[in-house]
Amino acid sequence: MAVDKRTDELMGHVESMLDIINDMTEDMQSRIKKEETKDNPDESRIHFYQSQLNRLVKLNGLLEDDILEVMISIRNISGPIEYME
Description:
Number of helices: 2
Strand content: under 5%
């Protein structure tokens, strides 16, 4: 728990976004699999779902790799900032 409660709130929002992205990712994967199992799969539809899936993977990576890393450093520094006052 951070000294500055706002950093915990921000972390919670990022984690909520990751949960939503994971749900959307599962949905796109399911749609791709469903389309692929059809007798005559629509390649353009598969490509459309795959394109969306790629965007979700990219967003997930940005949030997990870049945003969370910065958020953790902000949370870790909030204590010393607060004690300097």
